Amino acid sequence: MDTIKIGVAGLGRLGLIHAHNIAGMKGVELTAVSNLDNTVNQQTKEKYDISYTYTAYEDMIQNEELDAVCIVTPSGFHPDHIYKALRKNLHVFCEKPIGLDINEVRNMIPVIEQSNKVFHLGFMRRYDADYMYAKDMIDRGDIGEISIIRSYGLDPIEGLDSFVKYAAKNTSGGIFSDMSIHDIDIIRWYTGSEIKQVWAMGNNKAAPSLSELNEVDIGTATMKLENGAIAFVAAGRTANHGYHVETEVIGTEGMLRIAATPDKNKVTVFDNNGVIRPTSQNFAERFRESYVKEIEEFVRCIRNNDKPEVNAWDGLRSTEVAAACQTSLEEERLVEIQYER
């Protein structure tokens, strides 16, 4: 296989990032895009000299030139879009989450496992240099056995109004599926253990109207893992200082923090406002290289007939935990998670 031809489904913020990264890779061609807004399709086509554009995903995957698809459509469509792509013998990269309906995701697992095509799920933090460095330390036993993990994901408040409008017409799956899914994956990845209990809470101090939409602008969850470790996650859409992703791991022989402050770079400004460190303003900026690396890994697996580390089970387990958090939030109770093994 000389040039791997990929079609991108969905041209929202993240879809455009993936399209840009794919278009710039050697040995890879951004051959097609599908998106409901044809104006965006044409703009993307002209920018990257794309051969084909579609307003329907089902039409795009009929294109026999394609080797793979990158699915960045709304989360609820992911299981159906994965299934249809695999049935067309296409390799699949799918953004998180793998889906919103747990039964749909469970039914998708055998289809993925029985396919001879590569399936890669977009948990980009696993490809971030800082998170990978910390993972190596943990695996070497540098901080002993993990006792507690604290992980935050806070979006800039400037995007809150846009989310309120989105939530009025669409379902995000709740803040834990939409945002904390990355923290949940990191907790599972770092500990090698499943989460068995969750207690979640949230509120809408910044956007009270979200209460009518069964959404929150801040959500937290305390978790107990099967190996006895404890985790705490917080997700929000109200960070005034920028995009804030932070993780702390406390072990029996030490502790580590990843991005304790959301620094944009190594510049420090000293002026009449005091001492200031510029901060990252969005996920595309903070995880720019991670998004490239995960697609590079996807392409490598296609070429080498290999399996990526991130698999469908990771997607299912993280979705199950996120759903349990949502249930706990809505019903105001401790939720025990029962996994189908």
- What would CATH call the homologous superfamily of the largest domain? Dihydrodipicolinate Reductase, domain 2
Supply the CATH class of the largest domain: Alpha Beta
Order of helices and strands: EHEHEHEHEHEHEHHEEEEEEEHHHE
Q: How many separate helices?
A: 11
Strand order of the largest sheet: 12-11-7-10-9-8-15
Classify the fold: give the CATH topology of the largest domain.
Answer: Dihydrodipicolinate Reductase, domain 2
Which spans of ≥5 residues are poorly predicted at pLDDT below 50?
none
Broad shape: globular
Average residue pLDDT? 96
Characterise the protein shown here:
Residues 131-257 form the GFO/IDH/MocA-like oxidoreductase domain. One of its GO terms (cellular component) is cytoplasm. This is Myo-inositol 2-dehydrogenase / D-chiro-inositol 1-dehydrogenase. Pfam families: GFO_IDH_MocA (PF01408), GFO_IDH_MocA_C3 (PF22725). Belongs to the Gfo/Idh/MocA family. With 341 residues, this protein is an alpha/beta fold. The protein folds into 2 domains: 4-124 and 290-310, Rossmann fold, CATH 3.40.50.720; 126-285 and 318-336, 2-Layer Sandwich (Dihydrodipicolinate Reductase, domain 2). 38% of the residues lie in helices and 26% in strands. The chain contains 11 helices and 15 strands. The protein has helices at residues 13-23, 38-48, 57-60, 78-87, 102-114, 129-140, 160-169, 175-191, 283-286, 288-304, 312-331, and strands at 4-9, 28-34, 52-54, 68-71, 91-95, 119-122, 146-156, 195-203, 218-225, 230-239, 244-251, 255-258, 269-271, 274-276, 335-336. A 7-stranded mixed beta sheet has the order 12-11-7-10-9-8-15. α4 packs parallel to α5. The longest helix has 20 residues, at 312-331. It is globular and about 50 Å long. The mean pLDDT is 96.
